Automatic annotation (TrEMBL), chain A:
Protein name per its UniProtKB record: ABC transporter
ABC transporter domain segment(s): 2-232
Key words, A-Z: Antibiotic resistance, ATP-binding, Cell membrane, Membrane, Nucleotide-binding, Translocase, Transport
Main localisation: membrane
Species: Agrococcus pavilionensis RW1
Mode of membrane association: Peripheral membrane protein
Subcellular location field: Cell membrane
UniProtKB/TrEMBL annotation, chain B:
Gene Ontology CC entries for this record: ATP-binding cassette (ABC) transporter complex
Name this protein carries in UniProt: Transport permease protein
Organism: Agrococcus pavilionensis RW1
GO biological process, one term: response to antibiotic
Family: Belongs to the ABC-2 integral membrane protein family.
Amino acid sequence: MIEATGLRKQYGDFTAVDGIDFAIEPGEAFGFLGPNGAGKSTTMRMIAATSTRSAGDLRVLGFDPETHGPEVRAQLGIVPQADQLDEELRVVDNLIVYGRYFGLPLDYVKRRSEELLEFAQLTEKRTARVDGLSGGMKRRLTIARGLINAPKAMLLDEPTTGLDPQARHVLWDRLFRLKEEGTTLVLTTHYMDEAEQLCDRLVVIDKGTIVAEGSPAALIREYSTREVLEVRFGSARNAQAAEAMAGIGQRIEVLPDRVLVYDHDGEAAMSAVHERGLSPITSLVRRSSLEDVFLRLTGRSLIE
Amino acid sequence: MSELLLEAPAPTVRGPLRGIYAGNTRSVVARGLRVIARNNWLIVVTGFFEPVFYLLSMGIGLGALIGGVEFYGTEVPYAAYIAPALMAVSAMNGAVYDSTMNVFFKMNYAKLYQQMLSTSLGPLDVALGEILLALFRGLLYASGFMLVTTLMGLNLAWTAVLAIPAALVIAFAFASFGMAITSYMKTFQHLDYVWVVMMPMFLLSATFFPIEVYPQGVQWVIQALPLWHGVDMIRQLTTGLVQPSILLHLAYFAVMILVGLVFTTARLRALFLR
């Protein structure tokens, strides 16, 4: 459905995307996971035919977005990082007017807008001004707007960035519904929990290149252990304590605020730490996440 | 979700405009009209009064002292001499207000064109739609002004009815050029440059006195500027002293429209589809 080979984007001396390959299948939820500035948004804009590529090949729904921009955009739903709603129009008019940009008939667009308002849980706000909506409502309206043309694929750039936890869960729920209905979702995120919840398959992207690819579970299996022990000794003593822990678990990672011990059995690792006479201020055993995968692959955290 | 979902129709434009034009300019115009209908009728009319006040003060006040001015060999009352010039100014003002300040806001703050260009619209649809809206405002000002001058008995011949379509041409040219120029502006300060050009052009383009008072060299400069062509064209029509040179004026504006459109489209593409 969407296929890239050797895709590159250069802005002057800066290479935002440095030769990436990926293929997105119909009906799947595909994620680009990486820190800010990794090249995720640039990649999305190239797929969405709102940015040209510097090199490589890209096919979106059978078209080259470079030469068939309007055809490609006609079949995509786009949810940009900044909501970019039309603040001069009321909530429902945002949907109607946007639908008309696609050349859809007015009476159809009007009917469809009401359904989408319902889907986005915004029916009560239908004649409200857009600038008075909360962040979560704006994002849901943007998603509803992106659905007006019954897109073959939905492109979501950082869909829950800047939202509070409750608004994020409401949004995830809506995205799940779309996924269940078979809509292809392509999303970027720097939240590992979001990637784990929503994505069937993802690529980990860093500094414009893909460093790993697979399902969240497979990536965790491949690049991390089943469990992780997190211990804190206070920022001044973490490094020293880590030396004293050498040999415990399969791998030890020292972060400024904590030490991570990777092991298939976190509790056992914890006992081993105590046996060496170390007493951490806090300790916690948890399952491995994509955050650990990213740390393993790049030596850095996702959110810095 | 409904059982029957319509997919967006694929744009059918072929040939050299393929990829930059989807043949859906009307949706851009409809959006603008919806906003006007909802919000700012008052803002729309404010710019209309400026030339009306000039007409009242200069035309009636100064006109009493001056009497008549010669235009293509015929003596014309002063108020009837400046009225068509001010109508051209009306058309220009309306078009320029909209295509500079409003477009600047939509381009840089409301991110409206980014939104439009993430649909199947192409940059030419957006450029043309926004220019038509600016032109609409120019036409509105010019029509209102025409009403005032008709009531004051300042239209001297039947050809004056053609002044409305002529004003449309003028507004189209200024809107198209204005939007192209606005696409290069980065800050609000840059917008001031527009008025630095507009003000002297308004005062010096044979608006209030014949161009013959200038030395030849200055006349050429004035004649190179668009407003002079608009003033002379509308004046020919409202006085009934129509000359062959009217075709030249039309040709001038045709080129201006075309250049503005090509530039605006290219700029929108460069800014939002790069």
